[in-house]
Amino acid sequence: MLMAGVYSYLPLGLKVLNNIERIIRQEMDSCGASQVLLPALQPLELWQRSGRDKDIGEVMIRFVDRRGRNAVLGPTHEEVITELVKSHISSYRQLPLILYQIQTKFRDEIRPRFGLVRACEFIMKDAYSFDRDEEGLDKNYQAMHQAYNRIFKRCGLEILTTEADPGVMGGKVSHEFMVPAESGEDLVAVCPKCKFAKTFDESKKESCPKCKVGLEKINTIEVGHIFKLGTKYSAVLGADFLDQKGKQSPIVMGCYGIGVSRLISAAVEQNHDEEGIIWPSQIAPYQVLVLPLDVTDNKLMQLALDIYNQLQDNGIQVLLDDRDERAGVKFKDADLIGVPISIVVGQRSLSEKKVEIKTRRDKQTLSLNKEDILQELRRKIA
Amino acid sequence: MLMAGVYSYLPLGLKVLNNIERIIRQEMDSCGASQVLLPALQPLELWQRSGRDKDIGEVMIRFVDRRGRNAVLGPTHEEVITELVKSHISSYRQLPLILYQIQTKFRDEIRPRFGLVRACEFIMKDAYSFDRDEEGLDKNYQAMHQAYNRIFKRCGLEILTTEADPGVMGGKVSHEFMVPAESGEDLVAVCPKCKFAKTFDESKKESCPKCKVGLEKINTIEVGHIFKLGTKYSAVLGADFLDQKGKQSPIVMGCYGIGVSRLISAAVEQNHDEEGIIWPSQIAPYQVLVLPLDVTDNKLMQLALDIYNQLQDNGIQVLLDDRDERAGVKFKDADLIGVPISIVVGQRSLSEKKVEIKTRRDKQTLSLNKEDILQELRRKIA
């Protein structure tokens, strides 16, 4: 933490962040979305045109630059992307289109807290769909909804999906993706039987529309939010297209956000024990840790290095703990940083050619011949 | 351009940016550097402690947040990284250490211009080395200097290296990496024989210390700058370590910057002709463009798709121009976007099983059997 709500990523955390970004890119690309990168600095005038400079209030950081221009740090990018698309799209033949970015956002939070959950500077994936009509929007909205389910699953997260109030974003329909977590600030009412979920509302007696049982109140972290914006932004900013009949119409839009840095906190919340973090395989900073018990023993160290090199050559992200520390310290640190699989190289590895494979989550240990390591790891990681 | 000095990256430009970032990461990692990510938001108080809040002047964007905190948008990160290292490093055994980040920086430029060359929001790679003594710093400085030469070469850039004034950054020794370019703002005096170069100084009659001939004045773009900072930041911010003898000393630092987004402009400046860009192979948004001359011909289109899929399966970044446009339009656009190699699929490809391989840089065309494409491309791309 550099100041309240502002954090640095150290090497292990940054690797987790990069893994999450890679998963998001793969799933966005599979929806036919193209990646762009929009600026954080934006002219205030653009927000005045959409009318959101007032709606969004003080959470938007504003300043006047040396040339007297009123500028803001974008807390979100609907206006900017609409302007961009307006200058590039004019015909129905160029639609549908999905653009996304993974970018740093800034918000002047009055009470920044919970580390990466409510930060003043954070990383978001925001995607925007552009369609000819509502039918096209429905299709893209569905595709993105499914991509979100795949993303959160690959990140090792169990999520609840709720219908939500679009709020300042606008539009009629929106869904939120919530991670149950004790430290979460968002209250959700969930059916204990079918996992139907909705935003908790104190004033309403709530029960499951399907199972007819009472809903339970739980704490969650919001990690994603998708919106059918319709023509809210395109109409007011003049982002039109010519349809098949030569008629000018505003482009029909959707927007789709994921709190990328927040996902890290959510993943840790759902995947830890008293000893530390248990990283889900696909986002772990390393998939395997090689842990030689005595680094002063040259033969043992050479064996550890051989294993390390073999795994690295086979595309496995592997870390070698070559510190001259006691075994107990190394085991404790291994549990703390939460690499899913450790390979322990000790005296038995030399005398019997065996290594121990330890799984962080279930703490199971498996004794294995050196030759069988790669096959077993591939089975475990897959 | 969203506002003066503020730009969006569209998909092709972003791919170039990502390729440059990949090259930088590979070369930094090969120096044993670890990647981190530091925040853009910083407390003004930190800059007051180093005394640079005054030195850096109005180019640093400042604002007061809702809680009354004086915050700035970091134009550079010496203070932040020194604070970070101070809280993690205490012993000589933890040194040397190199950390780097690729991150968005903000500067309130009074005259933003030349697109990505002098922007208010831009992407930088900044690395920082931490050593026990001057000898360690010299070694890391040399290693980074060599890594810079490799990075610029892989980006397709010819560079000149000049000894430079450290300026507001501090320290005694610094070198700049300059790309000769007509639009460049920085004047360099260069020896026409041995390419010795130094910052141009109107007041001095300059000649090459080695060849004794007069230096020529040329325009350049600065793409990199490295500094031996010494203990300027560590001494004032209290980043000390205990040496072998148990003595407390300030850590000896170096810092190493590359203007990542600016590299794109420099690469275009050095690699273009009247028709458009000629991307150097390693940073090209795509290495190969498959160009079917008639997309309404199913057989021809199937052949183009087969080639496209074969290349993609072999890890070549390939783009298919499947637009229903005239051949002339497609050729013109191919030249404009500058993909290094085009594969033209026309009627002859069906009748004689031949395709034409066109090289963007030298405009040479080669007629080739379909089966030989992959081998020829591997030769050309390598």
Beta-strand content of chain A: 25-35%
Helix count of chain A equals 11
Structural class of chain A: alpha+beta
Biggest sheet overview of chain A: 5 strands, mixed, barrel
Total strand count of chain A, please?
21
Order of strands, widest sheet of chain A? 7-8-11-9-10
Q: What is the typical, i.e. mean, pLDDT of chain A?
A: 93
What is the end-to-end distance of chain A? 35 Å
Anisotropy-based shape of chain A: elongated
Can you walk me through this structure?
Two copies of one chain form a homodimer. With 382 residues, chain A is α+β, with helices and mostly antiparallel strands. In chain A, 31% of the residues lie in helices and 29% in strands. Chain A has eleven helices and 21 strands. Chain A has helices at 11-30, 44-50, 52-56, 78-86, 134-154, 232-237, 260-270, 298-313, 327-337, 347-351, 373-381; strands at 34-35, 41-43, 61-64, 70-73, 97-106, 121-131, 160-163, 173-180, 186-190, 197-199, 216-230, 240-242, 248-250, 252-259, 272-273, 276-277, 288-292, 318-320, 341-345, 354-359, 365-369. Chain A has a five-stranded mixed barrel with strand order 7-8-11-9-10. A five-stranded mixed beta sheet of chain A has the order 18-17-19-20-21, with helices on both faces. In chain A, strands 2-4-3 form a three-stranded antiparallel beta sheet. In chain A, β12 and β13 form a beta hairpin. In chain A, α1 (11-30) packs across α7 (260-270). The longest helix of chain A is centred in the middle third of the chain and has 21 residues, at 134-154. Chain A binds chain B through residues 2-4, 6-11, 14, 17, 34-43, 58, 61-63, 65-67, 69, 71, 73, 80, 83-84, 104, 106, 108, 110, 120-121, and chain B through 2-4, 6-11, 14, 17, 34-43, 58, 61-63, 65-67, 69, 71, 73, 80, 83-84, 104, 106, 108, 110, 120-121.
